Amino acid sequence: MTKGILYVVSGPSGVGKSSIIKSAMSKLEGFSFSVSYTTRPPRPGEVNGKDYFFVDEKTFNKMIENDEFLEYAKVHGHMYGTSKKYIKEKINEGMNIVLDIDVQGALNVVKKMPKETVLIFIAPPSYSELKKRLMNRGTEKKEDLIIRLNDAKWELSKINEFDYLIVNEELKEAINQLISIFIAEQIKTERVTEHLGRYSFFKIEEE
């Protein structure tokens, strides 16, 4: 069985990652969305177990002690983590996993699972546009907004460490680009070579 791929999609807060990922995945089969754990409070409309697993700091710290995370990081004052067991089981079953996490977490994941991981960075057209989007979203307090904008400067400096870059200037185009990346990675020769023997055009007899 061909192993699945771990697609790690990252970028600054407010860049539109969730909308792009959900739209792209709705058009493809064989992909599963990984749900992260977090200590931050849920936003309006978010569902526990679907968008995130919302836990308190005591529970999160206990999971760290038990070595249950593939990665975890403190972002914008809250903890986020990815279940190690869930990811590895799904990958070995041949399922493609899409992980929407912060830049710091993405770089930690690829260090632990370099062969299975594809890093995708979604960026805003400009820093000023990102600031505008965050302010229009209206879900953060002023102090949280300042933290996210300061973090974005560091996150944008890490673009060159990712495999792909999508600039979310036009939503439909960004969605199509993500779909193209998902499909292209499925047929890379390095991923399918071990299964090529079943195709007749590789069974060439000497004359």
From TrEMBL:
Cellular compartments per GO CC: cytosol
Alphabetic keyword roster: ATP-binding, Cytoplasm, Kinase, Nucleotide-binding, Transferase
- State a single Gene Ontology molecular function: GMP kinase activity
Matching PROSITE patterns: GUANYLATE_KINASE_1 (PS00856), GUANYLATE_KINASE_2 (PS50052)
Q: What does it catalyze? A: GMP + ATP = GDP + ADP
Question: Predominant location of this chain?
Answer: cytoplasm
- Cellular localization per UniProt: Cytoplasm
Report the EC number(s), separated by commas if there are several.
Answer: 2.7.4.8
Q: Which family does it belong to?
A: Belongs to the guanylate kinase family.
Q: Which NCBIfam families match?
A: guanyl_kin
Protein name per its UniProtKB record: Guanylate kinase
The species is Marinitoga hydrogenitolerans (strain DSM 16785 / JCM 12826 / AT1271)
